[in-house]
Design brief:
Length: about 190
Amino acid sequence: MNRRTTMVILLTGVIALTSGCISRGAKELLGAATGGKGTSVALQGISAGTGLGAYNRFELGPITDDMNGRVPAGLFSALPREFAKELAVKKIPNIPGGKTLLIRGKVLHYEDASMVGHAFGPLEEVIARIEFVDKDTGKVIGTANCVGRTKESLNVGVGSKAQGLAKGIVGWIDKRYPDNRRTKKK
């Protein structure tokens, strides 16, 4: 092989090896900016659309540990703050004294990233079975599995999983809340 061919092969190898690092670096920076991810899977109850139009208040009730004490207390203390932030981000009214939807549930699964997970891109998650209850009647109007997940090294930790879980819960509400009832930006 001549010198030019050797340099092309070497340069191609360096580009191939570093492109993975560059894309992971970009993913880490984006993840640090966006925080934990959240999603929900509806199990029963009202469908998407305007089903929650009568509610003006969304109250986070008890979310309990269904894992025999393995869920850190920090998740339960961070969740109300993150829940309130997500309601504001989605511009869903939360008016004291309004008709109230109570959100309660239990954590079914909680996972921290392992050392191996950090090497290949960490995956941390919390899964909770959430009930959405009309506070006046006590009737469960919907049930969903809500997931909070972190996939970036900069996002690991209880706070990011609480943020993701709040996004999952509020995402369920957002899909069922009428657009014309949202608060307007001032």
